[in-house]
Design a protein that fits this description.
Order of helices and strands: HHHHHHHHHHHHHHH
Oligomer: single chain
CATH superfamily of the domain at 233-361: Cyclin-like
Largest sheet: none
Shape: extended
Structural class: mainly alpha
CATH topology of the domain at 233-361: Cyclin A, domain 1
Strand content: under 5%
Amino acid sequence: MEEKENCVRVTRAMKRKAEEAAASIERTPTKERVVLGELPRLQNAGAPLIEPEPQKRKSRTKSRAAKKARTIIPELLPPKTEEVETTPSDPQMCEPYARDIYDYLHNLEVDPNRRPLPDYLAKIQKDITANMRGVLVDWLVEVAEEYKLLSDTLYLTVSYVDRFLSFNSLNRKMLQLLGVSSMLVASKYEEITPPHVEELCYITDNTYTKEEVCKMEADILKVLKFELGSPTIKTILRRFNRVAEEGKDPDLNFEFLGYYLAELSLLDYNCVKFLPSLVAASVVFLTRFIIHPRIYPWTSSLQQYAGYKPSELKECVLIIHDLYLGRRGGSLQAIREKYKRHKFKCVAVMPSPPEVPAYFFEDLIE
């Protein structure tokens, strides 16, 4: 009997526990999946959530009157200006200081101590002609290509040759020695690893000894008074090209053609009298003409930046154009062969009209 009562008590206890468990389940709310945007924004795990005060809440609903008052009349709006996409500037061009840099370079190029005499062949030299000078420059281009020298080294070399010949009469047998020694000085100024003296002696077929090259190097430095950092055509042409491209992406055909014309100008003695900035401006003028023969090649922005009018460029432009067409220096082929390569987009074979129209040299109306 006692065992039966115990079983009844156990059964009643289990039933009571089951009823209590069922009641607790009914009191616990079921969890729902919540979208990320609906999750409450918690500041800290232990800090209570601070609700904004009711009076500071902004109502997102606007009355019809308010919406009507905020209606904009299109006719009263100022005209929209189209946003022009500009290419990222080249940090090496130093655009914020471009004007000051160009003014500094211009002051250097007009310094008489850094300029050759415009007529030194007639006044100083007795045994050297303009043709000999052209042959020397053409050969120096080959030497620069052989030793993979920078074009800046070539321009400085020719500048040193002209400046030396402006003050010292030289025998024609020593002209090649002057050329290789000038290239040695320019290489030490521009190159990271300039060629050795022995290499420059070898390139002359050992016509000159190492001692002779070093002696001529010392003479050049004395005549130049160690003022070696003159601005060249290439230095200024880089900046003019940026203005000529008018903020567009760099055009390799345009740049290579300009460099080709600039190197051609080194061949002609008649270009010695022009400032490097004037030659660079003439190169830009002629480059634009060759690429677009029917478009006026000079612009007001180029005139303002370069400081030259079309009429001031006429003589130099015509000389370089004759060089390009082979009417001058036709026998000098080193530069022409250099720019016939695919490396330079074969710009040396680009066609050009035989004449530049005279009205292209008329000054712009300001």
